[in-house]
Amino acid sequence: MKVIEFENVTKNFGDRNVLDGLSFSVEKGEIFVILGPSGTGKSVTLKHVVGLLEPDSGEVRTSADRIGYLFQSGALLAWMTVAENVALPLRETTRMKEREIDAKVADALGAVGLLDAADKYPAEISGGMQKRTGLARAIVREADVILYDEPTSGLDPVTSAHITKLIGDVNAARSITSVMVTHDLASALTIASRIMLVKDGRAVICAKPDEFLASRDPDVAEFVAATKGAMK
After folding, report:
1. What is the pTM of this model?
2. Which of 18, 63, 104, 123 could hold 41 in an S-S bridge, CB 3.0 to 4.6 Å?
Protein backbone atom coordinates (compact mmCIF):
# COMPACT_ATOMS: atom_id res chain seq x y z
CA MET A 1 0.00 0.00 0.00
CA LYS A 2 1.42 3.35 -1.06
CA VAL A 3 1.36 5.94 1.72
CA ILE A 4 3.16 8.73 -0.19
CA GLU A 5 3.36 9.31 -3.94
CA PHE A 6 5.20 11.99 -5.92
CA GLU A 7 4.31 12.19 -9.60
CA ASN A 8 6.49 14.43 -11.80
CA VAL A 9 6.78 17.08 -9.08
CA THR A 10 8.49 20.32 -10.05
CA LYS A 11 9.32 23.19 -7.70
CA ASN A 12 11.08 26.44 -8.50
CA PHE A 13 12.22 29.25 -6.23
CA GLY A 14 12.64 32.21 -8.52
CA ASP A 15 14.89 31.08 -11.35
CA ARG A 16 16.23 28.15 -9.32
CA ASN A 17 14.80 24.74 -10.20
CA VAL A 18 14.89 22.65 -7.00
CA LEU A 19 12.65 19.70 -7.91
CA ASP A 20 12.66 18.69 -11.57
CA GLY A 21 9.98 16.10 -12.29
CA LEU A 22 10.61 14.08 -9.12
CA SER A 23 8.66 10.81 -8.96
CA PHE A 24 8.71 8.11 -6.26
CA SER A 25 6.42 6.31 -3.83
CA VAL A 26 6.73 5.11 -0.24
CA GLU A 27 5.09 1.91 0.94
CA LYS A 28 3.37 1.51 4.30
CA GLY A 29 5.80 0.43 7.04
CA GLU A 30 8.94 1.40 5.12
CA ILE A 31 11.91 3.40 6.30
CA PHE A 32 12.50 5.33 3.10
CA VAL A 33 15.79 7.25 3.04
CA ILE A 34 16.54 10.17 0.73
CA LEU A 35 20.24 10.81 0.16
CA GLY A 36 21.96 13.47 -1.87
CA PRO A 37 24.35 16.43 -1.86
CA SER A 38 23.33 19.73 -0.27
CA GLY A 39 20.93 21.81 -2.31
CA THR A 40 19.39 18.93 -4.26
CA GLY A 41 15.88 19.31 -2.86
CA LYS A 42 15.82 16.73 -0.05
CA SER A 43 14.31 18.97 2.64
CA VAL A 44 12.05 20.62 0.06
CA THR A 45 10.69 17.14 -0.69
CA LEU A 46 9.77 16.63 2.97
CA LYS A 47 8.02 20.00 3.07
CA HIS A 48 5.86 18.91 0.13
CA VAL A 49 4.87 15.73 1.99
CA VAL A 50 3.70 17.62 5.06
CA GLY A 51 2.03 20.37 3.02
CA LEU A 52 4.34 23.25 3.93
CA LEU A 53 5.03 23.64 0.20
CA GLU A 54 2.95 22.93 -2.90
CA PRO A 55 4.37 21.83 -6.26
CA ASP A 56 4.47 24.17 -9.21
CA SER A 57 3.47 21.17 -11.32
CA GLY A 58 2.94 17.47 -10.75
CA GLU A 59 1.12 15.89 -7.84
CA VAL A 60 1.83 14.84 -4.25
CA ARG A 61 -0.53 12.28 -2.69
CA THR A 62 -0.56 10.90 0.84
CA SER A 63 -3.01 8.61 2.61
CA ALA A 64 -1.65 9.44 6.09
CA ASP A 65 -4.06 10.91 8.63
CA ARG A 66 -1.28 12.22 10.89
CA ILE A 67 2.25 13.18 9.97
CA GLY A 68 4.98 13.86 12.53
CA TYR A 69 8.02 15.97 11.66
CA LEU A 70 11.42 15.82 13.34
CA PHE A 71 13.27 19.02 12.43
CA GLN A 72 17.02 19.06 11.99
CA SER A 73 17.48 21.38 14.96
CA GLY A 74 14.97 19.57 17.15
CA ALA A 75 12.98 22.86 17.25
CA LEU A 76 12.39 22.66 20.99
CA LEU A 77 11.03 25.65 22.91
CA ALA A 78 13.74 26.71 25.35
CA TRP A 79 11.34 27.91 28.04
CA MET A 80 9.49 24.59 28.22
CA THR A 81 10.63 21.40 29.87
CA VAL A 82 11.12 18.20 27.89
CA ALA A 83 7.69 16.96 28.97
CA GLU A 84 6.03 20.29 28.12
CA ASN A 85 7.63 20.30 24.66
CA VAL A 86 6.31 16.80 23.99
CA ALA A 87 2.85 17.69 25.33
CA LEU A 88 2.56 20.84 23.20
CA PRO A 89 0.91 19.23 20.11
CA LEU A 90 -1.72 17.60 22.32
CA ARG A 91 -2.48 20.82 24.18
CA GLU A 92 -2.63 22.85 20.95
CA THR A 93 -4.67 20.49 18.77
CA THR A 94 -6.80 18.30 21.06
CA ARG A 95 -9.22 18.62 23.94
CA MET A 96 -7.60 15.89 25.99
CA LYS A 97 -7.71 16.16 29.75
CA GLU A 98 -4.40 16.74 31.51
CA ARG A 99 -4.24 13.22 32.90
CA GLU A 100 -4.65 11.81 29.40
CA ILE A 101 -1.95 14.13 28.09
CA ASP A 102 0.38 13.14 30.92
CA ALA A 103 -0.13 9.46 30.12
CA LYS A 104 0.61 9.94 26.41
CA VAL A 105 3.68 12.06 27.14
CA ALA A 106 5.00 9.43 29.54
CA ASP A 107 4.45 6.75 26.89
CA ALA A 108 6.29 8.77 24.21
CA LEU A 109 9.17 9.64 26.53
CA GLY A 110 9.43 6.03 27.59
CA ALA A 111 9.67 4.97 23.95
CA VAL A 112 12.75 7.16 23.45
CA GLY A 113 14.30 6.53 26.87
CA LEU A 114 13.79 10.00 28.32
CA LEU A 115 11.45 9.56 31.27
CA ASP A 116 14.19 10.63 33.66
CA ALA A 117 14.69 13.89 31.73
CA ALA A 118 11.02 14.94 31.69
CA ASP A 119 11.55 17.96 33.96
CA LYS A 120 14.76 19.21 32.37
CA TYR A 121 14.98 22.12 29.94
CA PRO A 122 16.51 21.82 26.43
CA ALA A 123 19.66 23.69 27.50
CA GLU A 124 20.21 21.11 30.23
CA ILE A 125 20.30 18.07 27.93
CA SER A 126 22.65 16.86 25.20
CA GLY A 127 22.14 17.23 21.46
CA GLY A 128 21.21 13.57 21.20
CA MET A 129 18.63 13.94 23.95
CA GLN A 130 17.19 16.97 22.18
CA LYS A 131 16.75 14.87 19.02
CA ARG A 132 15.06 12.17 21.09
CA THR A 133 12.74 14.78 22.61
CA GLY A 134 11.83 15.90 19.10
CA LEU A 135 11.10 12.29 18.19
CA ALA A 136 8.88 11.86 21.25
CA ARG A 137 6.94 14.97 20.22
CA ALA A 138 6.56 13.55 16.70
CA ILE A 139 5.09 10.26 17.91
CA VAL A 140 2.94 11.56 20.78
CA ARG A 141 -0.05 12.16 18.48
CA GLU A 142 0.24 8.59 17.13
CA ALA A 143 1.42 9.67 13.69
CA ASP A 144 1.05 7.36 10.71
CA VAL A 145 4.13 8.84 9.05
CA ILE A 146 7.19 10.50 10.57
CA LEU A 147 9.47 12.72 8.50
CA TYR A 148 13.08 13.08 9.64
CA ASP A 149 15.19 16.00 8.43
CA GLU A 150 18.88 15.15 9.04
CA PRO A 151 18.23 13.37 12.37
CA THR A 152 21.92 12.61 12.99
CA SER A 153 23.29 16.00 11.93
CA GLY A 154 25.78 17.46 14.42
CA LEU A 155 25.99 14.29 16.50
CA ASP A 156 29.05 12.19 17.26
CA PRO A 157 29.20 8.70 15.66
CA VAL A 158 28.09 6.84 18.80
CA THR A 159 25.09 9.10 19.37
CA SER A 160 24.27 9.00 15.65
CA ALA A 161 24.19 5.20 15.75
CA HIS A 162 21.93 5.32 18.81
CA ILE A 163 19.48 7.73 17.13
CA THR A 164 19.49 5.60 13.97
CA LYS A 165 18.65 2.46 15.95
CA LEU A 166 15.94 4.32 17.84
CA ILE A 167 14.30 5.40 14.57
CA GLY A 168 14.24 1.78 13.42
CA ASP A 169 12.89 0.56 16.75
CA VAL A 170 10.11 3.19 16.86
CA ASN A 171 9.14 2.45 13.26
CA ALA A 172 8.78 -1.26 13.99
CA ALA A 173 7.18 -1.00 17.43
CA ARG A 174 4.53 1.53 16.38
CA SER A 175 3.88 0.22 12.86
CA ILE A 176 4.50 3.57 11.24
CA THR A 177 6.13 4.71 8.01
CA SER A 178 9.30 6.79 8.10
CA VAL A 179 10.89 9.07 5.52
CA MET A 180 14.38 10.23 6.41
CA VAL A 181 16.50 12.86 4.68
CA THR A 182 20.18 12.52 5.50
CA HIS A 183 23.79 12.83 4.35
CA ASP A 184 24.65 9.92 6.65
CA LEU A 185 25.22 6.91 4.38
CA ALA A 186 26.04 4.65 7.34
CA SER A 187 22.67 5.38 8.95
CA ALA A 188 20.87 4.85 5.65
CA LEU A 189 22.50 1.48 5.06
CA THR A 190 21.69 0.39 8.62
CA ILE A 191 17.94 0.92 8.67
CA ALA A 192 16.60 1.81 5.21
CA SER A 193 14.07 -0.36 3.44
CA ARG A 194 14.99 1.55 0.28
CA ILE A 195 17.37 4.40 -0.52
CA MET A 196 16.70 7.11 -3.09
CA LEU A 197 19.61 9.24 -4.28
CA VAL A 198 18.53 12.67 -5.49
CA LYS A 199 20.63 14.91 -7.71
CA ASP A 200 19.54 18.13 -9.37
CA GLY A 201 15.97 17.58 -8.21
CA ARG A 202 15.60 14.15 -9.82
CA ALA A 203 15.77 10.60 -8.52
CA VAL A 204 18.99 8.92 -9.69
CA ILE A 205 18.20 5.54 -8.14
CA CYS A 206 15.69 4.03 -5.71
CA ALA A 207 16.84 0.65 -4.41
CA LYS A 208 17.37 -1.60 -1.41
CA PRO A 209 20.62 -0.90 0.47
CA ASP A 210 22.57 -3.82 -1.04
CA GLU A 211 21.38 -2.93 -4.54
CA PHE A 212 22.28 0.70 -3.91
CA LEU A 213 25.86 -0.17 -2.96
CA ALA A 214 26.18 -2.54 -5.92
CA SER A 215 24.96 0.07 -8.41
CA ARG A 216 27.35 1.08 -11.16
CA ASP A 217 25.59 4.38 -11.73
CA PRO A 218 28.33 7.04 -11.73
CA ASP A 219 26.36 9.39 -9.46
CA VAL A 220 25.91 6.63 -6.88
CA ALA A 221 29.58 5.69 -7.07
CA GLU A 222 30.59 9.34 -6.68
CA PHE A 223 28.34 9.83 -3.63
CA VAL A 224 29.53 6.63 -1.94
CA ALA A 225 33.20 7.43 -2.60
CA ALA A 226 32.81 10.99 -1.32
CA THR A 227 31.06 9.78 1.81
CA LYS A 228 33.72 7.16 2.55
CA GLY A 229 36.45 9.70 1.89
CA ALA A 230 34.91 12.13 4.37
CA MET A 231 34.85 9.40 7.03
CA LYS A 232 38.62 8.74 6.82
Report:
1. 0.86
2. 18
